[in-house]
Each structure stands twice: as structure tokens, then as C-alpha cells.
Amino acid sequence: MVIYEAVIGLEVHAQLLTKSKIFCSVEIDNRSEPNSHVGVVSAGLPGSLPVLNRHAVELAVRAGIACHCEINLDSRFDRKNYFYPDLPKGYQITQFEHPICGEGFLDIVSDEKTGAKRRVRIQRIHMEEDAGQLMHVASSTLVNLNRAGTPLIEVVGHPDLRTPFEAKSYLKVLHSLLVHAAVSDGDLEEGNFRCDANVSIRKVGDTKLGTRTEIKNVNSFRFVEQAIEYEIARQIAVVEAGGRIVQETRGWDSAASKTFTMRTKEDADDYRYFPDPDLPPLKLEAAWVKSLRESMPELPDALMLTLQNEWGLGSDEAELLIQQRQWLFYCEKLVADGVEPKAAVSFVLTELVGELNHVGLSFSQNPLNPSQLSQLLKKTQSGSLSRRQSKELMIWWMGEPNADLDKKIEAEGWVQVDSSEALGVWVDQVIQAHPEQVQDFKDGKDKILPFLMGQVMKTSKGKAHPQRVSEMLIAKIRCKD
User: Fold this and answer.
1) Quick one: which H or E segment has residue 7?
2) In 3-state terms, what secondary structure has residue 376?
3) Fewest CB atoms within 10 Å of the CB: 177, 279, 439, 464?
4) Rounded CA gap, 304 and 87, in Å?
5) What is the mean pLDDT of the chain?
């Protein structure tokens, strides 16, 4: 029986976080009316000249640093010639033989069960402009050039991956790095982070690469894994049946869970690359690159240690925050404002995110800013409010974000009592009403304490200070020994 292995290489496009396009000053806005953000350069008008966006260069260098790449002080832009309706110039400005970043690597999880890691190589990172967008409406195809000229980096990996899981792991690591380095927002739904997967098969033990197919523009971690799984199985079936793999570009049909032929795959010669005559060679200063390297934010591996060692989080919570950068930034502001880290993360991940999902809002649409939630959580932290009360107040405040929290607490009668006199009355009533449970606690059954505390809270109608109740119950019960 012949055993095959897959050879997988990924090419990842990430949109850079600039305000304007890569070769002109037109603002990037892909959500506005079609063709409302188009300049003379991205429209390909005769006589228009490109001017390179400095911030795009900075972000490309930051991406290279995050991916352990060599930063090339000398690079060049080329013209990649092909004709397509959403490419008005008839060519794309990109980098070919002289990219801004050279060899690098990523450390990825290679085995889902054991968590074993291995290093895979990056061949290059180059800069380029995005094309426009085709919009298929009924029997017509419309062209929207708002996206044309948007700055991209393309991260080209070596064919070092062997399984669909490794491909997914590679994408997740790369996505996390680019987002945390503030290079790209990594928005998968908007197509700001998308992947082309080159897949071939060969017999185990062979060193020669097989004929590859390219699965184009997949923008989901799960879909990349599924598409590669399908393509490996399809290629093995073709070869086993005596057929031949054809080099081609294929698409992914997520509804049918299969790849499909789009067009015959082009080679580099088909694009007739040549240096762009309108753009001079790009020369970087070593001191400038050094300053970017020194200003890099904390990246995921180091951040994981910070969240675990300094914030006291478990690995699952820390990993979730690393994957969801908006949640992390929000929690960092809560902690900076004096909220205990574990309490802040727990409340955000369970109560806040849960309620936003319930009402159908994204995290960016959260009505409560960090200073508001901090105000609420510090009352919980001090014992002035219970967790249940805090959640109810959060839900109310999300509906009325301009309202006064303290007035609401007072109106609800949730101002907690911590005076010894009042608490003593409630605690004595509960001790007298539950002699069996009190005796169990005396006998060492500590798990009965939450029940007794609950009875005090019920008797006080939620007004008793929980921490003071706990302390007083223990003291009074032990005093009766």
C-alpha cells in the first residue's frame, strides 16, 4: 500500500493598518458607497504617478521583525502584469526579486494532542497593492475600486507544512503576531487577512515535489483546514485512479465542502515582471529599523507569560485574550484603573462578552467604556455589590450608558450595610434559625458556610456586606464553642 504525504505552503495577504492607500493619499474605506474612495493612481488614469506611503513601509518592517525575518535595507517595486476587470492599470505594483523582508520563521503547534511544537520557515514578506473588488449581482458583475490600492503585505511560507492542522496552526500564530504588532487588524470577515494554500502530494520518502494546486483566498482558519483536507484526499484519489494532477488555481466552496477549478495556474513568467519605472528603489536606514525593533510591543509568547505570571490567569484565559486583542486592551485599561486582574478578566469574558452576544452586538459596539465598567467592578471588589448585582447593573447601564450608577444603586436599595450592629442582628437570626447547619460547621464541614452566608444575604435582602458577613459568621460560631 502506497502512503502519501502532503506538502503545503501558504501565502498570506494581510491588509496594513494605514489610513490612506499605499501609493496615494486617498483614505481607505471599503464600507462606503462603491467607487467613492478612488484616486487617480488606483483608477489607473494616464499620467498618474505613485508616491509610496511611509507608514506602510514601517508596518511591513514591523511584520518582518515579528516574524523573525531578515530586514532588507534595499528593496524594489515591480510591475506584475495581468488583465482583470478590477485592476484598471493592467498591472499590480508589488515586489518580486527584491522584497522588503527575507528569510524568517514561526514556531507552531504541530500536534494537536501532545501540543508539540516545531519551527517552519518563512521565505519572504513583500509589499504590494490590493486590487479592486468584483460584485456579482444577478446576471451582472460590477466593479468596486474602493479597495484598489489598499496596502498589503504578502507573507510567503516555505512548503514546510505537512498536515491541515499545521496549516491552521501556522495561520493562527501569524494572525496573532500581526495583530499584536499592530500591523493589521486581521479582520477575517472583511478579507483583511486571507490565505492562498499551495498543496501537493508525494509518496512518503520522496524528496521531489509533486504538482501543486493553489486554493485561492480562504479567509477562515477552519475553512483552510477543511479545504486542504479535501484537496489532499482529491489528489490522492486522482493519482490512485491513474490520473495526473494539473497545476491550477482552485476555489473553496464552504457550502459543498469541496474545492473547484477556477483557472489554469500561472507561472512567474506569465506575469512579465519588471522594475516599476515610476518608483525608485526603496532604501532603509539601519538606525530607523533598529528604532522600530526597540519599539515593538509585547508579542504573544511574552504576553502569555505576563498574563499567567503577573495576572494569575490560566492558560485558556490567557490564550483567549491573546486571540481577542480588543478584549485584552479593554482588560488592560480595567487593571490600570485598579481592578484586580483575574476579577476583571473573569467579568469581561463571562458577563460582558456573554451579554453582548446575547443582544447581538460586537465587542467594538460595547456601550460601556472601560472607566464605566471599572467603576462598577471596584464596587464589587470592595464588597459593596455582589457579582449578581454587578451583572444586573451592567445590563441596565448598557441600555442607559449616560445614566448615573450611584443613583441607580441607591434607587435599587443595593447600598450594602457593613456596620457591625446591623450585621450582627442578621447573623444572630440565621445562627438561631439553623442550629443543625451551625453544628455541621463546628464539626469541620466548611462547605456549609456558603449556605449560611446565603441565608444572611436573604434575610438582609441583599444589603449585607458579603465579606463582613463571612467574617462575622465564623467569629460568632466559633465563639459559641
Assistant:
1) strand 4-15
2) helix
3) 439
4) 42
5) 91
Element (H, E) at 140: strand 140-144
pTM above 0.70, yes or no: yes
Strands 104-109 and 91-94: unpaired
Total count of residues recorded for the chain: 481
Where is 109: in which H helix or E strand? strand 104-109
Which segment of 30-44, 88-102, 147-161 scores lowest on mean pLDDT?
Answer: 30-44
Which of 126-135, 405-414, 455-464 has the lowest average pLDDT? 455-464
Is the domain defined by 420-479 classed in CATH 3.40.50.880? no
Percent of the chain with pLDDT over 90: 70
Phi, psi of 332 (to 5 degrees): -60, -40
Grid cell, residue 331, equals: 482588560
Cα separation, 215 vs 269, in Å, equals: 20
Q: What is the pLDDT of residue 453?
A: 82
Q: Please report, as a single letter, which amino acid is at residue 124.
A: R
Is the Cβ–Cβ distance between 400 and 429 less than 8 Å? no
Q: For residue 434, name the pLDDT band (cuts at 50, 70, 90).
A: confident
3-state secondary structure of 370: helix
Q: Which three cell numbers stand for residue 245?
A: 494532477
Q: Are 98 and 71 in contact (CB under 8 A)?
A: no
Let me know: does 377 contact 390? Beta carbons within 8 Å. yes
Which amino acid is located at 159 in the chain? P
